[in-house]
Amino acid sequence: MPVTIKDVASLANVSPSTVSRVIANSPKISDNTKKKVYKAMNELKYHPNAIARSLANRTTKTLGLVLPSTEEDIFVNPFFVQIMRGISHYAQKKNYYIMYTYGKDELDEVKHIENLTNSRRVDGIILTTVRENDKCIGCLREIDYPFVVIGRPEDIENILWVDNDNFHAMYRVVNHLIQKGHRRIGFIGGESNLYVTQNRLEGYVKALENSGINVSKDFIKTGEFTEEDGYTGMKSMLKSQQPTAVVTTDDIIAFGAIKACKEDSKDIAIVGFNNTLLSEYQQPKLSSVDINAEKLGYFAAKLLIDKLENNNKNGISNYMIDTNLIERESTKLKV
Amino acid sequence: MPVTIKDVASLANVSPSTVSRVIANSPKISDNTKKKVYKAMNELKYHPNAIARSLANRTTKTLGLVLPSTEEDIFVNPFFVQIMRGISHYAQKKNYYIMYTYGKDELDEVKHIENLTNSRRVDGIILTTVRENDKCIGCLREIDYPFVVIGRPEDIENILWVDNDNFHAMYRVVNHLIQKGHRRIGFIGGESNLYVTQNRLEGYVKALENSGINVSKDFIKTGEFTEEDGYTGMKSMLKSQQPTAVVTTDDIIAFGAIKACKEDSKDIAIVGFNNTLLSEYQQPKLSSVDINAEKLGYFAAKLLIDKLENNNKNGISNYMIDTNLIERESTKLKV
DNA sequence: GTGAAAGCGCTAACAG
DNA sequence: CTGTTAGCGCTTTCAC
Predict the structure, then answer these.
(1) Which end of chain A offers a freer environment for a tag, N or C, measured as fewer CB atoms within 10 Å?
(2) Pair B148, B191 in one domain
């Protein structure tokens, strides 16, 4: 029933291998036979069977995308959807397909990765989260399967990854605030042992130092990525210090900080991170750093596909994606 | 390098076909040889090659998911993410995989569908939007490829689909408002030629009639799915009628309606639809109908997979998914 | 430049 | 119950 390469071959009066060469656009095929073959393909409405090709040349042209399924992550944050689009964007360009799976937790993710790779359904894997001592990375490394990570892993040796330049992102935000006249600027971050937190904190410190502003421990709070810790961080800072501006490492933290300011009727400039959907719906509308998730996805796909196609001559193993401060009401005022 | 069925066969001292039967869990295999084979598989860490299986039995165990990439749709609305999870949930249960593609527009979607189906990468397709005179459906029908659509198509003959019971959803919402004492209830809907709009309107009408409340054209507005049309619809209703409550067919419409009420300082009960993320962040928090998108995805996958596996004995060709009124501040008050 | 033949790894008759 | 034998549809040496 389905038309195969043989049908095309006999109609065009050539051998199957010739047709195959035409499909692969082999250089050593006369223009004449090329034409003949194309004609036959059109007449028969021939379309190569991807599965058969995959079996023969041991490559599926498919990438596996592993998504976490934590409620908060997935819903409040357009992050993953944007990443998916970015990936899709580059993949389509290169004629790659994407299979996605949701993992209930880290172990479940590992299980899915094993399924995907053992069955050879995919040529490579894209990881969308990094954890401490990441088991997914461990597993992929062990079986030596191509993969790329969105977010900077602890141990980057021999790993493809993309991430924002968190140092610069925060550096620029703080600088911007300084330009606006702020001198007493606080920092409220998530877990202090995370790279993101550390890098963003460094950017904060550097910006202050560069402007000759004293960096004080009392202006630096870290905790969890929760509204609550944003709230308490802000509260305690308000009590002892008199910040005129506060930068945070996540919108959710910023939301808590806003709440604290409102309670104390303090008018303080606040900046969030990740530019989540809700930032625009705060009172005041929250200025936030857009991390360009779509670009993260795009370059993750690029890194992986380039490797798969051996186009990685330049040896690039990671990309730093730029960020954008989206300025809204919360940082409108000059001091 | 990779271990194949042959390796297992020779280690277990059986033929490849026997191993194949063990993999497929064929009933007519003695427990003894089953054990032998399993042992060999474990020792060799054998994993069947999915591609080879697909080629041999002409089935890929993967579904193609076609997503629209309209900004608004994708971002503001957790709809698609939820659908993806639902699909994934059922698919994983049945050991199916999902490939997704984004279509820039209808034609682009058709192109992707053709790619997916012509290359035989997928066994079936899941459509997440329905348009008037839908080209995707047309194409799929023509080539007679299994598919399911989320949303009720115009012509449902021989088509698998899932949708909410829009009639009942709205019927119950209006009833609920009536219980609360409302008698002057307005309706603001999207495009009047769409099924959703019509069905929801019918539910609205029926509920009023059942309670012996007069249905007046002046209480019914339709337009586009925009904040603007929600706003103007509300404005004009406020001018001529004195509604105490208004139901809408989309949160975005409700947002506009809220705005209009605020401007005129009218305290009117308002209900949205789709329970989007932002509904909770309105002032007042918007009551909205949750359409259970995850369930829509789940049952879409079920419908399609059941068909593919010929488990569709009962001949079910669609599911109606229940909805849930999420009550928030906007309908708190009794009249 | 093009064809013949072997094979990718697995499944599915058909025997026995 | 199990083995033998052909393929599934395409690619890829290796000749010519």
Answers:
(1) N
(2) no
- How far in angstroms lies nucleotide D13's C1' from the CA of residue A53? 17
DSSP states of B11-76 as a string?
HHTS-HHHHHHHHTT-SSS-HHHHHHHHHHHHHHT----HHHHHHHHT---EEEEEEE--HHHHHH
Q: Is the CB of A47 under 7 A from strand C?
A: no
Nearest residue, CA→C1' of D2? B18
Residues B274, B229 share a domain:
yes
B229 and B315 part of one domain: no
A31 lies in the same domain as A67:
no
Q: Among B53, B71, B93, which residue terminates a domain? A: B53
Q: Is the domain of A275 the same as that of A236?
A: yes
Cβ contact B118–A47 (<8 Å):
yes
Mean pLDDT computed over B283-295: 95
- Say what the pTM is: 0.92
Nearest CA in chain B to A91: B101
Domain span at residue B13 reads 5-53
CB distance B100–A100 less than 8 Å? yes
Domain match, A242 and A260 both: yes
B151, B70: one domain: yes
pLDDT tens digits, residue range B230-288? 999 999 999 988 899 999 999 999 999 999 999 999 999 999 999 988 888 888 999 99
For the segment 86-145 of chain B, residues whose CB is within 7 A of strand C: none
Closest residue in B to A95 (Cα) is B115
User: Which residues of chain B lie closer than 8 angstroms to A89, CB-CB?
Assistant: 102
Tell me the CATH number at A196.
3.40.50.2300
CATH code assigned at A12: 1.10.260.40
Alpha helix segments (H runs only) across chain A: 5-12, 16-23, 31-44, 50-57, 71-76, 79-93, 106-118, 135-143, 166-179, 195-210, 227-240, 251-263, 293-308
Instruction: State pLDDT tens for residues A5-35.
Output: 999 999 999 999 999 999 998 888 899 999 9
Chain A contacts of B80, Cβ < 8 Å?
81
Task: Decide if pLDDT at B175 tops 70.
Answer: yes
Which strand ranges, in their side-by-side order, compose the sheet holding B220-222? Answer: B220-222, B185-189, B245-248, B269-273, B287-290, B324-326
